[in-house]
Amino acid sequence: MECERCGGLMVSEKFYDLLDGEIDFRGYRCLVCGEILDAMILKHRESLESALVQ
Questions:
Q1: Is residue 36 a part of any domain in this protein?
Q2: Average pLDDT value over all residues in the chain
Q3: Within 13 Å, how many C-alpha atoms sit on residue 25's CB side?
Q4: What is the DSSP code (8-state) at residue 2?
Q5: Which of 6, 7, 35, 43 is the most buried (most CB within 10 A)?
Q6: pLDDT by residue (tens digit) across 8-34?
Q7: Dihedral sign, CA of 36, 37, 39, 44?
Q8: Does residue 3 fall inside a structural domain?
Q9: Residue 1 DSSP label
Q10: Dihedral, CA of residue 17, residue 21, residue 27 and residue 29, to nearest 10
């Protein structure tokens, strides 16, 4: 997968909540710029884009 921000390589990763350790989720992280994408980030970006179009 290619990073939309910089064109670098996106890798699948499991992320953990370091405060209480009860939350974890899967997403993608760019090895070049550090961009993180997961389902929630993509959902928020889509809703923001649709709000800007209206």
A1: yes
A2: 91
A3: 11
A4: B
A5: 35
A6: 999 999 998 888 778 889 999 999 999
A7: positive
A8: no
A9: -
A10: 50
Q: What is the DSSP string of 4-48?
A: TTT--BEEEEEEE-TTTS--EEEEEEETTT--EE-HHHHHHHHHH
Number of domains present in the structure of the chain:
1
Within a domain: 18: yes
What is the end-to-end Cα distance of the chain in Å, rounded? 30
Determine, yes or no, domain membership for 37: yes
Q: In this structure, what token pair is assigned to residue 33?
A: 């710029």
Domain span holding position 37: 10-53
CA angle (19 as vertex; 17, 22 as ends), nearest 5: 50
